[in-house]
Write a structure and sequence with these properties.
The structure is a single chain. By secondary structure, the protein is an all-alpha fold. The chain is built from 7 helices and no strands. The model has no long low-confidence stretch (mean pLDDT 91).
Length: 202
């Protein structure tokens, strides 16, 4: 524990910093190449807009906390759970985070030009993905993100990360419903047939 706990602490700071930089670089690169943003908030005040705002708020809070923990003892303020704060739990969290990171990158590559964050009503590609990982689960990207959220809770078992986990899962479940409505409007019977054959999550 003397070695693993500091290593996991450093890992979390670097991991979430790199996630932010990678997402920003990918978004800016796509915008520079294609001339439109792949990040879609939706109409201000709409459910999808609130989902994005909530997700950004918690993502920013996680990054700030993980970076601050590199030099400050914030754990008493985060409500760390001593019963869970042991190296097997922390290492399991790291493994989940790495698995989530790998899966998200694979899925973004698999989706290629069809990848969007949020509902894109104006620049949609017109393709309904039903094969590969989308043949086993309608929302493999969201499942991967939720795995990462669980991993964060295990890597830093605390009241703070538990709130982040619950809020993240709630937002993702609500966003999945909104995206399914948009896909049903866009693809009609094709999507209804797909939805009848493939489970939403597992």
């Amino acid at each position: 524990m003397d070695f693993i706990e500091p290593a996991v602490r450093v890992f979390l700071g670097i991991f979430f910093l790199m996630i932010g930089l990678q997402f920003a670089a990918r978004t800016l690169g796509l915008y520079a190449r294609l001339g439109f943003s792949h990040i879609n908030y939706g109409r201000p005040g709409a459910a999808t807009w609130w989902h994005r705002q909530t997700f950004n708020l918690f993502r920013s809070a996680i990054l700030v906390v993980c970076l601050a923990r590199l030099g400050l003892d914030l754990d008493p303020w985060l409500g760390v759970f001593p019963a869970l704060y042991h190296w097997p739990v922390l290492v399991t969290g790291v493994i989940f985070l790495l698995a989530s990171f790998t899966a998200v990158n694979y899925l973004q590559a698999y989706m290629h030009e069809d990848w969007r964050s949020g509902i894109d009503e104006r620049h949609g590609s017109g393709n309904l993905l039903t094969g590969g990982p989308f043949g086993r689960c309608r929302h493999p990207m969201f499942v991967s993100v939720m795995l990462g959220q669980l991993g964060f809770f295990l890597a830093l078992p605390s009241a703070f990360s538990l709130v982040c986990l619950m809020a993240g899962v709630l937002v993702i479940v609500r966003q999945a419903r909104e995206e399914e409505k948009a896909l049903a409007r866009r693809f009609g019977d094709r999507y209804e047939d797909y939805r009848s054959r493939v489970p939403r999550w597992f």
